[in-house]
Every structure is written in C-alpha cells, then in structure tokens.
Amino acid sequence: MAISAKSRKAIELAEKYGAHNYHPLPVVITRAKGVFVWDVDGKRYFDFLSAYSALNQGHNHPKIVAAAKAQLGRLALTSRAFHNERMGPFLKLLCQAAGKDRALLMNSGAEAVETAIKAMRLWGYRRKGVDADQAEIIVCDHNFHGRTTTIVGFSSDPDSSADFGPATPGFVRIPFGDADALKSAIGRNTVGFLFEPIQGEAGVIIPPKGYLKAVRRYCSMYNVLMCADEIQTGLGRTGSMFACEADGVAPDLYVLGKALSGGLYPVSALVGNDEVLSLFTPGTHGSTFGGNPLACAIGEAALTVLQQERLAQRSSKMGAHLLAKLKTLKHPKLKEVRGRGLLLALEFMIPVRPLVEDLMRRGLLAKDTHEFTIRLAPPLVITEAQADAAFRILRDALSAFPE
Ligand SMILES: *Cc1c(COP(=O)(O)O)cnc(C)c1O
C-alpha cells in the first residue's frame, strides 16, 4: 500500500523502538474532532473504532476539553493522602448515574476489573462466609476484561494467555449466554459472576433474550455478586446508559472505564452498594493516580456531556438507522450483521483485514476483531448524514471486496 514518506517515518520509528504488541493499520493520525481524525498528510477519516468505545462523546469534545484545561495548571495530582475538591462531585454524579451508593476510582479498565475481583473476594470472605483462600469467581468463555496477569489467566484466548502463566487460581469458566451453565457452576465458594453484557472484543456477541434476567435471578438466589464489566458496553454505547438496563436488570457491581473520560485521560471505576464497597478500609486498596483531580474534572464533564446530549438515546436511534442500512448489504461471504446501539459488527466467512485496509484507503477506520469480524463503533455524536456517508464507503468497499 502506498503510504507517504512522512507516515512511513513515523511508523518506522515506533516499530524500531516500541514493543510489537499491536498490529496497527498503517495510518498515522495527528489530530481529531468529533467523528473524524486526520492523518499527517491531511487526509480525513471517519473513526469507526472510537478507541474501542473510549470516545463515545467524540474526539476532543469542547466541554470536556474545557474542563481539562481549566483543571490543568491548577491542580493535577494530590494522591489520595490528601483530599481534593474535584473527587466528590464526580463520585456523586457517577453514583447517581449508576443508581449505586459508592464508587472506587482507578485509571485503566483492567485496574477497575482487578478492583472488582478484590471486592468480590473481600465480600465472599467477610459477608458470605467463604473459607479463607477458597473464593471462586465465574467468568465466560471468550471474555475480555483486560491484560493483567490475573485477568489473562482466565482468558480463553491463547494469544492473550499463552506463556504468561501460572494462572491465578479461583476462576471458573462457563459458556457465555447460557444461564443454566451459570446455575450449574455456582457452588458454596462462588462469590461472583464477572461478565460482559455484550462481548465486545469477542466480536460483538449478543446473548439470548432473557439471559441477563436469568443471571440476575440465579445470582440473587444463590447469594453471588453479579458484576457487569460495562467498560465497553456502558455509557451509552449500546443504546442505553448501561447495557444491563436494556434488559431491565441492575447488577450488583458495574465496572466502568473507557468513555468515563470521553477519551481524554485514563479514568475507571468500580461502582456498587455499601454492602460491597464499604468493605474497603484504609490500606486495603489504592492507586497513586486513581481519583486525581484532573481525572475527576474530566470524568465529571464526560458524564455530564453523555447526559446533557442524551447520547444513549442518540446511540439507540443512530444504531437502529445504521443497522437497518447494514442489513441491506449483500456479499457472498458476509455471514451476519448484528449489533445494539452503536456497537455493530459485520461477520464474514473470510479474513477481513484486506477489507479493513480498503476501508482505510476510502476514508473509514475500523478494526478487524478475531480475523473474521469488523466491529463498527463510531462516536455516539455521529449525525444521520455522517452515518449515511460512512455507510456509502462501507457499501462501496464491500462491492469491491473479492469473494
Ligand atoms: C477495554 C476493556 C477492558 C480493559 O480496559 P483497559 O483500559 O484497556 O485496561 C476491560 N473490559 C472490557 C469489556 C473492555 O472492553
């Protein structure tokens, strides 16, 4: 593929000095606004990845940027050894949005998942009465919860876990979308069920109708914490504030990240009720940067934008619009078109990397996941005209995609 000397130089430098733990598309982005990014040669692209849903509010949302700028140069970090006046308002807004008592702030998504694992174990020993070191957490096949040693230890993806063992004990894996499997897997030492309401990294896998309701029922029946990793599905991405909400279900714990900062900064959280969150006491958990004033100023603005601009409703409406158009696409190797809200996917019977690269040439950035699936997840601020223009690019690329 022809790429400019400027792009090539930037790529070569990163490839030479960086670890090769990603396989990026050969595009070098230098600025962004809303649903668009521009490369170093001035070419514009639709961003249909949104940094894996961290950019629900769109790139550089002016209100979030303004909040960040107002805080930068004033106070960025105190550590939790002292109070700062930005944390309280953000926590309050977050808890109100989730309908929960308390939140614990971290930075990356994986750290918030680790926090959830610790919280579930803590609750298991202190409240459920599980014997020391016997706590079990149930997870799903094809899960994606992050990249720490413990988390990859219970992944079913060999690329993620191979040669990173030994795996942390205390996890049991069951098929996703099968509530009976959950019921059978629950034992006396089960403290929690950690799951994604829709599996994002696995290729936008939507569970059968009624699954989350059944999960809620079994978790309540057997005194097991229901812990929804909504790092990717939450905050409007799937057409409601939380994906669990669409099924009329409230989990005990929400794990949030990504769009919690609108993409400006790493901000993550575990959100839940006193029953669990009040078990943390000084010294039991922490993070130097977690809950820092810059993160809180950005997080508060990011949540406010989601609410004020009704981005969950917008995601629902634009998602339905785009899904209906995508369903008209015809290609002999196109297996399925699916999605909810603006978390959409096209699954093929052949590898899609060439299609992804052609889309890039045509001005639309999306990423293949697990070789056969393209995930389509534009910022939720996308307009109907923009969605239609992006659809035309997809349609044209598909008609040129060899069978
Ligand atoms: C991205 C993601 C994570 C991990 O978040 P990081 O910020 O990359 O650590 C965890 N769970 C889900 C569902 C995700 O999509």
Overview of the molecule:
- α4 (about 85-100) packs parallel to α12 (about 295-310) and α13 (about 310-325) runs parallel beside α15 (about 385-400).
- The chain folds into two domains: about 5-55 and about 310-400, Aspartate Aminotransferase, domain 1 (Alpha-Beta Complex); about 60-310, 3-Layer(aba) Sandwich (Aspartate Aminotransferase, domain 2).
- The mean pLDDT is about 95.
- The relative contact order is 0.16.
- The longest helix has 20 residues, at about 110-130.
- The chain is about 40% helix and about 15% strand.
- The protein is of the alpha/beta class.
- Pyridoxal-5'-phosphate binds next to α5.
